[in-house]
C-alpha cells in the first residue's frame, strides 16, 4: 500500500478526488496526512475524511529555508512513499526537493513545458492559445521543469474565461493524478526512471 502526504495551498479539489478514490478498498494507496503552507480551506478535508492535517505557515518563518526545514520535518514524521503537491503554490527549497526526490510529484494546469508558473490558465488565455492541458510531473528545483509523467490536452473554447477553462482543466488534472498514483502504486510507473535523480 502506497502511503501519501498531500500538500496544498487552497481548497484541495484535487485532494478531494484522491481521497474519494482511496476510499475504495481496491485502491492501492492511502493518504496518511495533509499539509499546507497556510490556513488553507482544504485542511478541512482532513476532518471530513479522518486524515491528520498540519499547517506550516510560510509567514511564521524568517526565510524560505527555515520554512522548508520545518515542512520537511512534518512530512518525514509520516514516512510517506510519495509526496503530492496538489495546488501547493510555493516553491520548495532545494534541500526539501533533494530529501524527497524523486518521490515528489506535482499537478500543473497546462501542457508543460507550455505555460509554467503560477498563472498558467491566465497565461494560456493571454497568449491566445487554442489548446492547453494538464500535466503531472516529478518535482525538481526548476519552476514546473521536472520530468513529465503524464499529460493531456484540453481545448481552449472561444468564450472561455479563466474560471471556465480552469474548471475544465481541473477535471482532467484530477483524473491524471489518480491514474499516476495508481500507476506508481502498481509499479507501472517508475519515478526513478522518470527523474534526474
UniProtKB/TrEMBL annotation:
CDD domains in UniProt:
FMT_core_GART
The catalysed reaction is: N(1)-(5-phospho-beta-D-ribosyl)glycinamide + (6R)-10-formyltetrahydrofolate = N(2)-formyl-N(1)-(5-phospho-beta-D-ribosyl)glycinamide + (6S)-5,6,7,8-tetrahydrofolate + H(+)
> Which species does the entry assign this protein to?
Cryobacterium luteum
- Site feature (Raises pKa of active site His) residues: 144
Q: Could you say which residues bind (6R)-10-formyltetrahydrofolate here?
A: 64, 89-92, 106
Tell me the classification of the organism that encodes this protein. Answer: Bacteria, Bacillati, Actinomycetota, Actinomycetes, Micrococcales
Protein's UniProt name: Phosphoribosylglycinamide formyltransferase
- Could you name the domain of life of the organism this protein comes from? Bacteria
Q: What top-level class of enzyme does the UniProt entry assign?
A: transferase
Q: Which GO terms describe its biological process?
A: 'de novo' IMP biosynthetic process
Q: Which Pfam families match?
A: Formyl_trans_N (PF00551)
Q: Which residues bind N(1)-(5-phospho-beta-D-ribosyl)glycinamide?
A: 12-14
Q: Which UniProt keywords apply?
A: Purine biosynthesis, Transferase
Q: What is its EC number?
A: 2.1.2.2
GO CC annotation terms, alphabetical: cytosol
Question: What is the similarity comment for this entry?
Answer: Belongs to the GART family.
Q: Catalytic site residues?
A: 108 (proton donor)
Q: Which NCBIfam families match?
A: PurN
Amino acid at each position: 500500500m502506497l502511503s501519501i502526504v498531500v500538500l496544498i495551498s487552497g481548497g484541495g479539489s484535487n485532494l478531494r478526488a484522491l481521497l474519494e478514490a482511496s476510499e475504495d478498498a481496491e485502491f492501492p494507496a492511502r493518504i496518511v496526512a495533509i499539509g499546507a503552507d497556510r490556513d488553507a480551506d482544504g485542511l478541512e478535508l482532513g476532518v471530513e475524511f479522518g486524515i491528520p492535517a498540519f499547517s506550516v505557515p510560510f509567514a511564521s518563518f524568517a526565510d524560505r529555508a527555515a520554512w522548508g526545514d520545518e515542512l520537511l520535518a512534518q512530512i518525514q514524521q509520516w514516512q510517506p512513499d510519495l509526496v503530492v503537491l496538489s495546488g501547493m503554490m510555493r516553491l520548495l527549497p532545494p534541500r526539501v526537493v533533494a530529501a524527497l526526490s524523486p518521490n515528489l510529484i506535482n499537478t500543473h494546469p497546462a501542457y508543460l513545458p507550455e505555460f509554467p508558473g503560477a498563472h498558467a490558465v491566465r497565461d494560456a488565455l493571454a497568449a491566445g492559445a487554442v489548446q492547453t492541458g494538464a500535466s503531472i510531473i516529478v518535482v525538481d528545483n526548476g519552476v514546473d521543469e521536472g520530468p513529465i509523467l503524464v499529460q493531456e490536452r484540453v481545448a481552449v473554447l472561444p468564450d472561455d474565461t479563466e474560471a471556465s477553462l480552469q474548471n475544465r482543466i481541473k477535471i482532467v488534472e484530477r483524473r491524471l493524478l489518480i491514474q499516476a498514483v495508481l500507476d506508481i502504486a502498481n509499479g507501472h510507473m517508475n519515478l526513478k526512471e522518470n527523474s534526474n535523480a
